[in-house]
Predict the structure of D-3-phosphoglycerate dehydrogenase.
Amino acid sequence: MASSSTKPIFTPPFTTTSSSSSQPSTRSSLLSFLHSTTPTPISLNISRSRISFLNSPSSAVRSLSVKNATKTIEAAETSRASRVGGLDANSQETKPTILVSEKLGEAGLELLRSFGDVDCSYDLSQEDLCKKIASCDALIVRSGTKVTRQVFEAAKGKLKVVGRAGVGIDNVDLQAATEYGCLVVNAPTANTVAAAEHGIALLAAMARNVAQADASMKSGQWQRNKYVGVSLVGKTLAVMGFGKVGSEVARRAKGLGMQVIAHDPYAPADRARAVGVELVSFDQAISTADFISLHMPLTPSTKKVFNDDTFAKVKTGVRIINVARGGVIDEDALVRALDSGKVAQAALDVFTEEPPPKDSKLVQHERVTVTPHLGASTKEAQEGVAIEIAEAVVGALQGELAATAVNAPMVPAEVLSELAPYVVLAEKLGRLAVQLVAGGSGIKSAKVVYRSARDPDDLDTRLLRAMITKGIIEPISDSFINLVNADFTAKQKGLRISEERVAVDSSPEFPIHTIQVQLSNVDSKFGSGVSEGGDISIEGRVKYGKPHLTRVGSFSVDVSLEGNLILCRQVDQPGMIGQVGNILGEQNVNVSFMSVGRTVRRRKAIMAIGVDEEPNQETLKKIGEVPAVEEFVFLKL
Ligand SMILES: NC(=O)C1=CN([C@@H]2O[C@H](COP(=O)(O)OP(=O)(O)OC[C@H]3O[C@@H](n4cnc5c(N)ncnc54)[C@H](O)[C@@H]3O)[C@@H](O)[C@H]2O)C=CC1
Ligand SMILES: O=C(O)C(=O)COP(=O)(O)O
């Protein structure tokens, strides 16, 4: 049998000597879906020349069909080959380059060094970062590095993952990362306690004027009357943002004898109840609290949420702690509220601009206690964060879906391993369906029908949908598609993907019985691929762990989806398999599978022929000239 020349579609971008080689092949191939090829920036304008390949005028004339099919395949192959080629070179020979742009704990650095070339370059200007990034596969930052669109642009598609060694990802342009198919991961748990402890430290220090008294004493004074503080016990603390840090602050404040209320539009009430905290509205929180501690992320909706209007509603003499992000407070408004006495004191770890200007009125205010963004800065937290982010980045570079992905759906490992063969099937079905589209038809919508015996809640199809999108788009454009950017790219290209689940009475042991891909409102260059409903329709299933094509239009077939495929519609008569088989055999094209499906005996039949090699144009022409062959198409998988 001739050996297959098919290139691997899923190849882990980087392999290490030990860890990746021990991965089961299905796992590594599935997980590397994140960046199975070297990502290239997504062209937001659909490339006309490439699209016109598929949309070029066609007719039912068979020779044109052959020409179109060949062209489409060539276009897809050229595009894929260039990317896969680069990848293979990387995976075999080159270690990934990981740029660490801010101080990271040693344990994390060691882990990174065992996997790639680590470049620790701190305090880079934007310009220098943009210069360096073009040669980096991963970037690890803390809060001090602005990972802007410009950085993703400068990366020219090489950057695969940005690791944020901490929680807040407001310094990373997530939209740009997604558009460029770059995964963003964070380290959301390791600094929670450190940030909560710092919040409590600021609360107590502010209430007892510790910083001011310290500075006063060091300047030679002894001012006992000036620094009389306020007590915490019995006072009401409003925790704004009842997430990981907020709830730890609440726990500790209760230990200090405070009454704790919280505002968080998304926090479950039972989580608050478990800590003995009542969830209240924003207005109720700010108007009843003696102390307000901020723990929400900086997002467009929380930006300057504390402004003149808000300060007008607070209890006079309120004290504010901010260990979240400076941007949630309108700092000028806070200065006004401090000056008017509406706000008695503030304790701030974070600022809109970091470091703030030296003459910042807020920093210089005598009733304000400040620290230079130290919330996460304990030895313990920094070691924990460094390990957490190093593991996530290394995993992502090996093609795994990180559990802490910020711009991609999180799919649990057990779901991933169960879906592995269906993921392969999904991409192949998308790839096949798009190759049946005739020139001139713009693809606007695709429908995916999953037949499954599973409860709909027990079937996560996001990965499958992304793979079908990849299968449909990649053969006809320059776009690189992965789980990060699949939905975005489909939207940009005006492709609407809808999903339907149909309950079937089969074993729920297998997640999916069949997957059907339908393309509507398009002409087909292979009329038999069109269902009675008028859509291009193909269906497949996983058999013995392998993807199989089981239906084309209204014809049932059964062919393993390996190598390439020839679909022939013919008059159902004896000798057809032999005739076509001979033509292929003469050209040394090895047939791997053959399946015939027919609607009416001795009338019409579809022959699906799996071939290991790509037949040349002459061979395809000869198949087309067999008198009983009415139409045929060559499809590359
Ligand atoms: N100063 C420092 O060094 C540190 C600062 N942080 C900051 O603290 C923030 C919180 O961290 P975690 O608790 O780990 O995150 P988290 O995601 O566990 O909690 C954030 C909470 O804020 C809530 N939230 C979102 N929008 C809100 C709104 N408009 N009003 C009220 N609540 C809202 C969310 O529902 C969530 O429960 C981070 O985003 C980060 O900016 C975190 C660690 C260290
Ligand atoms: O984790 C966070 O959100 C933080 O703000 C910590 O920031 P840092 O890593 O100390 O610059």
Remarks:
- Residues 1-32, 36-92 have pLDDT under 50 and may be disordered.
- The two ends are 19 Å apart (CA to CA).
- The CA atoms of residues 38 and 246 lie 40 Å apart.
